[in-house]
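Q: What does the predicted 3D structure of Morc S5 domain-containing protein look like?
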Amino acid sequence: MPVAMAGGSSGGGRVLDCRSFWKAGSYEAPAAPTHGFQDALETGDFDRARVHPKFLHTNATSHKWAFGAIAELLDNAVDEISNGATFIRVDKTINSKDNSPMLLFQDDGGGMDPEGVRRCMSLGFSTKKSKTTIGQYGNGFKTSTMRLGADAIVFTCAIRGSNVTLSIGLLSYTFLRRTMKDDIVVPMLDFKIQDREIVPLVYGSQGDWDSSLKIILDWSPFSSKEELLQQFQDVGSHGTKVAVYNLWMNDDGLLELDFEDDDEDILLRDQGSASGGVTKGQKEIVQQHISHRLRFSLRAYTSILYLKKFDNFQIILRGKPVEQICITDELKFKKVVTYKPQVTHDSQVVSVRVDVGFAKEAPILGIFGMNVYHKNRLIMPFWKVFQEGSSRGRSVVGVLEANFIEPAHDKQDFERTPLFLRLEARLKQIIIDFWKEKCHLIGYQPTDPNLRSQYKATLKDSGGSASHVHHKNSSSRRTGGFSSNLLPETYDDVAAAGFPNNGSHLQSTGQAQENNMDSEGLDEDLVEIGSSGIFDPNFMEKLSEENLALFSRREELRQRDTQLKQTIEDLERELEETKRKCGQLAAELKVRKNHQHLHHRV
């Protein structure tokens, strides 16, 4: 592919011929001139390894999903909480050179000094090795920014002792491609505050500093040194701002990130097709559920991205804080299982809490999966431990924090080590045990013979219908803005269904297998329910209708709430306008009185 650029000669108009991320790495690299080898020997340039610009793109392909790249940049801000960070702002801004959209990230963390920003923008360097920080490979900034757009510019301000420094760095795939570089060149500028003035901080020669300035002005969205320095005005005395521009497009020539459909969100195109609902109404509910929305809604994804809720930190997406959601709070008939993996023979004993329960929408919708976190960060959302078509574990959702295994480089999966495989086998067993113990609570025939006998007796005593059990003390509520369902007031009220809450034979079996790493008992027959699994079709139909009615009611209330807010804003504007007019009338009246008073005196 040719490396010629489309657009004008201005920096903002310089874009790659191919704006599709997955095709942008396919171009012919120029061959090194024959005299370059001799020059390199004479100058000692072989003291360091060269990294071809193609590697920037190849490295970024580790992120198959654009939201995974955004999460990496959020992680950097979350890691700065220990340095005083209180927010990370994610928003759309405009490239003033060509009016194209840019993706902006800004935090108020400790910022980076000149040495730190060079470490950030070099390849494979990381000082994050603590037990709490999320980033650890030293590769996240490069892979994430290059996955979102062809170019990124960094502004960072830091206080180290009595020194206040400002640094600017440009990571531009477009610049490297257009100028036919065979090595990754990252121009950087540094400044310091001296006598309340911003003055250049030159580490090499003044010529190098001036050359970096020229490259940044030519290939960034900014046209002057003054305009560059203006970017620090809202950063404050410490913090970091990253602008990603020349954003990637899909095969249809549209931006991969959609900023237009929702003013308070950033959406992924071509990711919103819903499945899992039989009727149109059920599909609507599926579309509103977070397990579906997280695939294309950044607000939905970031709402569950971190396991523990922040005390003094916010993710502000397009001007509105993200409301964090705890998945375990969205479950009914919950149970806690302790898993003790065998990490190594000489290591400390690890104990992992696994929260498991039924999705609120059960049994109407078959939403299921395990949400696996690592160091507070979501790695695998709604992981299908069983295959999609399997009946076992229907509507079972779980949450755990697996710090004893290492995530993959893109932090969207785990390395397939023996530890991970044993975890997978154990989670399958936990789901099966939970299903066998509690599936009757959501309308399925009990798999245990003793519970099945009690179930039949309950049906006989209640005249063949157990729907009143599930409707007792029911209430509707909105959770996280994604779904609204008829739910029991007390999720763990097993006795309300007419069954004893001892579960002794089941619990003892689960405890006996607690530390068993193999996959015994994973036979499909254990949980196969078939078409006769649901004990009361009338109950299912009625519950489905009530779910749909509540969903419609929620939408009506949401619209009404929006209308009321708009009415309040209109009234407030009218009130301010009335006050302004009253002030004008009062001033005019005062002037007239003064004129009349002077007239009488004359």
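A (community wiki): The structure tokens above were generated from the sequence. DSSP finds 16 helices and 20 strands in the chain. Residues 454 and 499 are 7 Å apart (CA to CA).
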